[in-house]
Amino acid sequence: MVRILIISILRMHHHTLVFHIIKLGKKVQKALGHKPYPFSLGVSQASAVVFISQHKSINQSEIAKHLHMEPASMVTLIDELERIGLVNRDSHKIDRRHNKITLTAKGKKTVAKIGKVTEKLDNYLRNKKTKNDVKTLLNLTEKLSNNLDKWKGGENALPKPKRTLENGHAQTS
């Protein structure tokens, strides 16, 4: 009886939105070559250097916030990026989380390579779907991201669904 219950639970979870998103994320990472990444970077490291490239100078706390990482974890990530020569750090005298981070020449080349790889995969995926499908997917992922920003975590902390009226029909978000 317990075994049947466990199998039923596993089957239910296999079809949840969360597990589908995780599965998709893992497939994208595999398609991009994340770990080993073509440039020996993990997903967080690659995301960080791309984000840094979009700013003249940015501090570690801002990078951590954008990547949804703890500031202390970002210090470790930046230490590694600095060790492999992708970033420079202009040290803050009191708090390492406020160090200004910039890309090195090697970091800029790495970002260009990351851009080529991701653009190639992006184009491949876009060509397999209609423009409307892509627009719908982008809108949906943005909404999911916004919803997750509001979720505080914990088993009983799920936000209550918000019901609205759209085109005369009840909608839940």
Kindly describe this structure.
The chain has 173 residues and is mainly alpha-helical. It has a domain of 107 residues: Orthogonal Bundle (Arc Repressor Mutant, subunit A), CATH 1.10.10. The chain contains seven helices and five strands. The strands form two sheets. The chain has a three-stranded antiparallel β-sheet. A two-stranded antiparallel ribbon has the order 4-5. The two termini are 37 Å apart. The mean pLDDT is 80.
Q: Strand sequence of the main sheet, in spatial order?
A: 1-3-2
The CATH C-level name of the domain at 27-133 is: Mainly Alpha
Give the termini distance in whole angstroms.
Answer: 37 Å
The main sheet comes to: 3 strands, antiparallel
| CATH topology title of the domain at 27-133 | Arc Repressor Mutant, subunit A
What is the helical fraction, as a range of percent? 55-70%
Q: Quote the beta fraction.
A: 5-15%
Total helices: the number is: 7
Mean pLDDT: 80
Low-confidence stretches: none
Order of helices and strands: HHHEHHEEHHEE
The structure class reads mainly alpha
Approximate shape: globular
CATH architecture of the domain at 27-133: Orthogonal Bundle
Task: Briefly summarize what is shown.
This protein has 173 residues and is mostly helical. The chain has helices at 2-14, 17-32, 43-53, 60-67, 71-83, 105-127, 131-150, and strands spanning 58-59, 87-90, 100-103, 163-166, 169-172. Helices cover 60% and strands 10% of the residues.
